Amino acid sequence: MENQHFLLIACPFQGHLNPMLQLAKNLRQASAARVTFATTVHGLTQIKTFPSLDGLYFASSDGFDDGIKQANNSQDMLSELKRAGSQTLTELLMTFSKNSHPVSFLIYTLILPWAADVARYMSIPSAFLYIQSATSLALCYHFLNRHGGVYDLYNSCVNNPPSSIQAPGLPPFETEDIPSFLLPNGPHSSLTPVFQHHIQVLEQEPSPCVLLNTFDCLEEDVIAAIGNINPIPIGPLIPLALLDKNHQSDTSCGCDLFEKSTEYIQWLNSKPKRSVIYISFGSIAVLQKNQMEEMLLGLIGTCRPFLWVIRSSSNKDTEFEEMAREKVNEEEGLIVPWCSQMEVLAHESIGCYMMHCGWNSTMESLAAGIPVVGLPQFADQKTNAKMIEEVWRNGVRARVNEVGIVEADEIRRCLEVVIGSGEGGQEIRSNAKKWRGLALDAVKVGGSSHNNLKAFLENITTSAKKINGVFDGGAENKTIDATKPNENSNN
Ligand SMILES: O=c1ccn([C@@H]2O[C@H](COP(=O)(O)OP(=O)(O)O[C@H]3O[C@H](CO)[C@@H](O)[C@H](O)[C@H]3O)[C@@H](O)[C@H]2O)c(=O)[nH]1
Q1: 274 and 201 share a domain?
Q2: Do residues 290 and 334 both lie within one domain?
Q3: pTM of the predicted structure, to 2 decimals
Q4: Residues taking part in catalysis
């Protein structure tokens, strides 16, 4: 592994950076390889705290480097990201090659399928780190692949879409529980071509490889059913020390794009075991003001302490926050702009987590053994909420009313189930505990995810030996139009 150099590239979103940075640490721990992590120029300036990673950080352009120039719409943003990103990724790879540290393997994540095109053109093998569930990947794959994918069929009957989808290894999915970026005319349909491109580059690869932030026994059937693109579960991508107190080596988790509070651990220390409701909706979702008000009423109605992350990035939130602070005294409910979520979930005072069901938060709650109440918003969140309630059974999903709002009574009912004496709560809490044990088993030495990462690394070494010589300077002798990686691709 000494001669290997991994370049890991991610978009500067919190939910993308965290699992990729953990993978960077795991690769460093599992091998003597050089690992370089890259994100966009502007993204790099937004990171408030980095993990303790003794690798290098590099920046690549997204076309909006000063953070001032804005895209007119998401399509413009994505095409500029592809144009500028392909060009600067090519330059980065060439620079490493000239500096005697040629990149031998590229790992890219969501929204960057063109990175695989650049790598293939430069004869550098690559893998896709899929940072959502295997279930989400399977739905994407069965929807978008060119051989029998259901997207075209679906698209052709957009005014009367099928009410459910049946994908191999999965229970039937109602339309509304499919990731929103797969739905034609849905709110995130501008992302559908990007996911199509992801599937297309995998289909073009002679030996495709998708690393997954999940673990074998959580999504066994569905992983087996997407064998064609070689899915390799290596998760949860969370520091082992936070899952298991016997491992003190590394407790830093991802990075922070938001300023963290400091007072919450002391506040949690003052609360009884398993008494606190933790609430957070990830790094992107902005809830409507009336939804926040219903949540506040529901929380007050439980008469239990709560820790609520309300990001200060939205003015709407600031207005609500002032009102909430007037209604609740800090002993009962603490509102913070950001926290170290994994540290909170690992705290013994936490009894349940009310969340949006983003995949990182879903994995983190499973790994911490904390039962959940899901209020999914968009993207893959409804897919995850369905799996939580119906398959993994470690939580419940709150039901929305006719205008899409979860009312205070429903919030109180759900919280009473997972943290109180509501029906079915015992089973949910014991399932949450079971998944914690299984997640830990997967990542410890000899566990399935640990072994999968080891086998992945061994495979790279073997392949590199077979094609010895390709890594040395292959990139330097070519001139390409990096803005058009598809046209340049070998296939
Ligand atoms: O106060 C906080 C709140 C969150 N987090 C972390 O932020 C990350 C949030 O990630 P995630 O739960 O996946 O939510 P989003 O940031 O909303 O993630 C986006 O990206 C994910 C991966 O593609 C998708 O699954 C989600 O639906 C999408 O909204 C997690 O690691 C949390 O631990 C903190 O550290 N502190």
Answers
A1: no
A2: yes
A3: 0.92
A4: 16
